[in-house]
């Protein structure tokens, strides 16, 4: 199969997946529209763009699906709320520039924190306390990093401070192999660039 | 996303503006890919609006009465060996909503300029 064929098949498969079970009109309408759009864009030779458009639109695909379902079901409402939050955060990060960096780093913090907390179950009694504290600390740090990142365009100094609170303690407190201090340097450099960029945008406006 | 009733999202404003520009250029109707291209051109961004974002916005705008749609004749699509297009056009309600949004944006910009100390 050609690369275009793979992109078309993948996009079609995803659309089929998230439209499954919807009312016929909504289901077939969405499938037809996306198929047409993909055909047009592939005809224009934009292979990468077609694939990334599909990926970037996943949160909105899911919220659209939730909106087509019965509004009274609490699970669907909760899922829609969660997807809206994740989708909004992701779109915001991409629109503001440095796509994925803050989201990726914060997600890494949260993931490691979650793993530490999960590892509490059945773990060595002697290290449970460390893992509990470490896990919670990482979850909170991830939140600070992401929240500070989001704040920078509106309040640069405050946003930088919040990012620092989320990342500097790791550089100071953990000296193993230099990895975490290096991650802190990357985060702070990125945050400073973001603040500089936000300052330039404001002065142009 | 929560918003005040009657207000347009930035993407909706972009879509309406792009659609009216296309209409002025002779294209009374548009399909998804066409409007995505026009929005990208006007916004000078690197990439087209994502599928999910675009078609969700179009669906929402249609529900709100800002645009209306029709499916093209299946035979036309079959003759050209491509999927069927869904054509949209801006309604009078959509034009009015766009004018309101543009006026609000202009007022907000004027207010922010006046608020900046000399």
Any overview of this molecule?
The complex is a heterodimer of chains A (205) and B (118). With 205 residues, chain A is mostly helical. Chain A has helices at residues 3-19, 24-43, 47-56, 58-68, 74-96, 101-118, 125-151, 156-173, 179-204. The longest helix of chain A has 27 residues, at 125-151. The mean pLDDT of chain A is 74. Chain B is mainly α and 118 residues long. Helices cover 59% and strands 8% of the residues of chain B. Chain B is built from five helices and two strands, in the order H-H-H-E-H-E-H. Chain B is elongated and about 60 Å long. The termini of chain B are far apart. Chain A binds chain B through residues 11, 29-30, 32-37, 39-41, 49, 52-64, 84, 88, 91, and chain B through 1, 31-34, 36, 47-56, 59, 71, 82-86.
Protein chain pair with the most extensive contact, residues per chain? A-B, 29 and 23 residues
In which range does the helix fraction of chain A lie? Answer: over 70%
- Biggest beta sheet attributes of chain B: 2 strands, antiparallel
- Tell me, what's the shape of chain B? elongated
Radius of gyration of chain A: 21 Å
Regions of chain B with pLDDT < 50 over 5+ consecutive residues? none
Q: What fraction of residues of chain A sit in β-strands?
A: under 5%
Oligomeric grouping of the chains? heterodimer
Helix fraction bin of chain B:
55-70%
- By DSSP (H or I, 4+ residues per run), the number of helices of chain A equals 9
The Rg value of chain B, from CA coordinates, equals 16 Å
- What are the secondary-structure elements of chain B, in order, as H or E? HHHEHEH
Low-confidence stretches of chain A at least 5 residues in length (pLDDT < 50)?
Answer: none
Q: What best-fitting shape of chain A do the alpha-carbon axes yield?
A: elongated
* Mean pLDDT across all amino acids of chain A: 74
Kindly report the spatial arrangement of strands forming the biggest sheet of chain B. 1-2
